[in-house]
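Worked example
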Amino acid sequence: MDRLRTAALIVTLLIPGLAFAQAVPADVWRDVATRAGAGSDVQVRLTDGTKFRATLVRVDDSGVMLQPKGRVPVPVQAVPYASIASLEMPRKGGVGAAKAAAIGVAVGAAAFWGMVGIALAIWSD
C-alpha cells in the first residue's frame, strides 16, 4: 500500500510541471536552422520522442528537410517546425584517447632521443 501511495504522490507532483511545459515557437527553430545552414550536421529530437542525427538539406517557412544518418540510407524527410522538440549542432573538437596516447608517446620518444643526442654530443668532445 505504501508503494501505491508513493507512486501516486510522485505522479501528482510531476503532472503540474508537465502541464506548464511550453512548446518552442516555430520561428525559434527556423532561426536555429537558418544559422546552422544547409549541409550542417544536426541532432534532432522530435516531440514524439524520436532522436536522430541528420544533415540539414533545406530550410523553408514550413519546416526543414533532413537527411537522416544511419547504416541504411533513407530518403530526405520533411520535418515541420511544430514537431521539433530540439535541434542542436553536435559538439565537435577535442582529442580522443588514442590520439592523446599517440601524441604522448611521440613527444616522449622525441624527448628521449633528443637527450641521447645531446649526451652523445657532449661525451664525444
Q: What stands out?
A: The domain at 24-88 is CATH 2.30.30.100 (SH3 type barrels.). The longest strand covers residues 51-59. Confidence is low (pLDDT under 50) at residues 17-21.
